[in-house]
Amino acid sequence: FSDKSEGNLLEESLVQLRCHFTWELLVEATELPDLENRILDEIDYLDTRYNAGIHNLLAYVKHLKGQNQEALGSLREAEALIQQEQAAQSEARSLVTWGNYAWLHHRMGRPQEAQAYLDKVEEACKKLGASSRYSMQCPQMDCEEGWALLKCGGKKNYERAHACFEKALAVDPENPEFSTGYAISTYRLDSFNKATQVSEAFCLQPLREAIRLNPEDAYVKALLALKLQDVGQEAEGEKYIEEALGNTSSQTYVFRYAAKFYRRKGCLDKALRLLKMALRATPSSAFLHHQVGLCYRAQVIAIKRAANWQPRGQDRENVDRMARLAISHFQFALEQKPTFEVAYIHLAGMYIEVGDYGRAEDTYQKVLCLKSLEEEKLQEIHFHYGQFQEFQKKCEINAIIHYLKAIKIEKASLLKDKSINSLEKLVLRKLRRNASDVESLSILGFVYKVKGEINKALEYYERALRLAAPLFYAF
């Protein structure tokens, strides 16, 4: 009974700690290999003064993979880095590391070691004047949590990371680390809010502020360049890209984002050259392989456009060759990161390009089966699958089903608008073939209702009701 009671008391103490084991980091089991690769890439290639936390996160990932001895090694690395920092910063980071030690020893069935680290946390909290026995409220702690959430990815983690950095900045607005974390989390969230120009511009000021406080941060300069390109200020963005490329700091990361910038500018050869340089350093990067695939995909589109969308002979051969190169890189990206939703869409698109509709169908089915899809991604998947059903499979019923699924997701987005327009065109085409199609009239009424054209919506609903009434009374 005594052992059981002590175990419960230990658990009650452990849950009060602020560390990776208590931050509820949302990571799918299938994402762990990619997350570990990205952590290792950051340790090796991202020049930062804030990397004790990344070793803590690596320890947590190692534990999730069942590699507890390796996890202890990562915590020792974190401790060694903390010793090199300023006292005020190192105390907060030490609390996180000791909390992770306590949890890890507990999970390994070592209650005495776990208690020893709990005691260290308690002693430090008392010394720092914390109101809680086992946790401390301070901006550095919020920052540590923010970095962990940011690295794990996904909209919910990004939103929580953004709140952490915002809270830290409220206490110390001139802190370069807090400002950098806030800017990056705002940039990541902007990728989920492409419906409005306002949201796209929202992260410009935080990025500029982060650069003001840390002018040598080439990584943040590359992100600012991409965001300027997003909002139509490409010339200014290119100046930041050139500055970042001229800096030896974080070069592997700068190559990634510079390549993305030049791909979107249409400089595909330059983009591919940069991506291949980055791949030499990080050959397993899902991000890089996806970007290479996008370059080959862009070359497919360029050849088709030049051939007036009817490539023949050598052009057709080049399209097939580029599409197959894109396929190989998208496939590799998905092997590394099976939850990479947009890579499935791009892979399916290239299968369609080479006429392999069976594999395209399989790819769409895989992505539709993924758990915890964000609304924005789900809209995109349903729209593209609807297009596939309409134009390749010639199945209007399935196309309508998936356009409707995209539209019924409340989130305003460009893909929702595209789904509305595609559905409207499809249903109008059906009505030209059969003006008495009750279902098509009803769907068109729904489309105009969604578009806010209430009078037109009522007109089509009423036409559908008049045609449906005789059928109803016949029964």
UniProtKB/TrEMBL annotation:
GO cellular component: cytosol
Coiled-coil annotated residue ranges, if any: 61-95
Keywords in alphabetical order: Antiviral defense, Coiled coil, Immunity, Innate immunity, Repeat, TPR repeat
Annotated GO MF terms: RNA binding
Pfam families associated with the record: TPR_7, TPR_8
SUPFAM superfamilies: TPR-like
Keyword Iron-sulfur: no
GO aspect biological process, one term: innate immune response
InterPro entries: TPR-like_helical_dom_sf, TPR_rpt
Start and stop residues of the TPR repeats: 341-374, 438-471
Entry's family note: Belongs to the IFIT family.
Protein's UniProt name: Interferon-induced protein with tetratricopeptide repeats 1
Organism ancestry: Eukaryota, Metazoa, Chordata, Craniata, Vertebrata
